[in-house]
Amino acid sequence: MFIYNLAAAAGQAAPQNKFGFAEALEQGGFIAYATVIILGIMSFGSFFILFTKFFEQNKILSQYKNVRSGFWRAATIREGAAKLDKNSAWRQLVDDGLAAEDQHAKMTDALEAHDWLHGSLARSEASINSKLAGGLPFLATVGATSPFIGLFGTVVGIYRALINIGLAGSASIDKVAGPVGEALIMTALGLLVAVPAVLAYNWLQARNKRIAELLSGFSTDLLANINSKGAVKPAVVAAPATPAAPVKK
I need a surface site. Which of 133, 171, 206, 212 has the fewest CB within 10 A? Predict the structure, then answer.
């Protein structure tokens, strides 16, 4: 008889879990689904901006090596510009500086000519920095608001749990487990979206600051070189010597 009861119990279907993630969303209804969708869009946007800005920054930093190794070795700025990528930030600074140099001949005052060159390079530098900063406000917004969006879902879940307690007249676990579980899930999702966004924002901001310093230094060197008619150039590290071919005996 005992063995028969065990076999009968084993043959029965396993009870369904009524407190999973999908079940919690189904119990939460429209508000739960809307909260999860909004947080999902925020998370996708945050990672998209993180990767696109990371590759954009890496491109500028790698191009800077070419600036240090090849640009300042050219006889003139115009020759050095030909060695830079056409769509690079460094080429934009050089082209804007050369355009300002062509236009500054119309200035009758030497001081006005210097200010014109300086202002042109500063505008070019500012436009590059502005492009690099694009998308970062979205990361900051996600980091600041996603915990509160998750908290909104939490408040709604707790409210539903209290309604169930009031209707049942007792705080039994089967009445409150679903809404409370939904509330905790919303809190966790809000934090899960916010933390990567804040970390990505701070990291990208630090890299942008480094790039801005390099752009500022390059812009200053350009201004000095143009005003001195090519006499002033920054110190350039010597190119590595190529190894001599082995002598055949």
Answer: 206
Taking only the tens place, the pLDDT of each residue in 77-116 is: 888 888 888 888 898 898 888 888 877 767 666 657 778 8
CA–CA distance, 152 with 35 (Å, rounded to integer): 8
Q: CB of 215 within 8 A of CB of 94?
A: no
Q: Which two tokens stand for residue 112?
A: 């006005």
The whole-model pTM stands at 0.75
Q: How confident is the model at residue 23 (pLDDT cuts 50, 70, 90)?
A: low
CA geometry: angle at 212 spanning 207 and 213, to 5°? 100
| DSSP result, the chain | -HHHHHHHHHHSPPPP-TTSHHHHHHHHHHHHHHHHHHHHHHHHHHHHHHHHHHHHHHHHHHHHHHHHHTGGGSSSHHHHHTTS-TTSHHHHHHHHHHHHHHHGGG-SSHHHHHHHHHHHHHHHHHHHHHHHTTTHHHHHHHHHHHHHHHHHHHHHHHHHHHHHHHHHSS--HHHHHHHHHHHHHHHHHHHHHHHHHHHHHHHHHHHHHHHHHHHHHHHHHHHHHHHTTT------PPPPPPPPPPPP-
